[in-house]
Amino acid sequence: MRLRAVFILFAVGLGGWGVLWAQKQFQQYPGVEYENFPLPPDYQEKTEWTRARLKYSSFDVVHPPIRDGYHRWTVDYPRSDRHLMQGVRRLTRIHTRSVEQIVELDGSDDVFNWPVMYAVEVGYWHLSDDEAAQLRDYLLRGGFFMCDDFHGTIEWNNFMASMKKVFPDRRVVDLDNKDPIFHVIYDLDDRFQVPGAQYLFSGQIYEYDGYGAQWRGIYDDQGRVMVAICHNMDLGDAWEWSDDPRYPEKFASLAYRIAVNYFVYDLTH
Asked: DSSP class of residue 176?
């Protein structure tokens, strides 16, 4: 009996070791705007939660590319991510580190280690059938996906071309002001369009024909928001530029409150 107990303990320990090794370690990538961005002191801290950023394939036929080698998934990265995660540490009791986790829909199980996934510039993403299938599996297993920073009709249609691969039979709907996602921490009935940093030189809140903010989502069978879509706004820029006095505080403040609500909603629903 004693030998059997030792064997069971060894097997359990080995299984736990395998799970830890299955989880990919933090890795920093070069961004289109930032390279060698300073790492915060807690970047290697073992925490209970962090927000993942999706690394995806894209194409530039929607609008002209800014420059060769421009990877859309790295927009605002990592400055936006680091600012946001520091805000989550200050504003909540979520045990998180101040860095992001980059994930890919690569067929491995790593994506299932990260409960919240964020993607930027999804007006340019291009998911393969296999990637769409894994994103669907991730969401139906309880994952939460938030996308942001895409504008106007053209980018919406391109976003939906891939999202329809993910959920061909589920509707994208406008989120009602009464939905708990807008009230779980902060009451956010009075939301408004959050512009990107282009506002600082253009004075214009919208981009292309994206004249009004659209807070949309996809629900699971239990009525839980599993896809939160922030269209015609740029929360990523609001987090990124929140330490710049030129960027209006009211935009940055709403962007942080939205993120806190969405993350706490996912952890409690």
From this structure: P
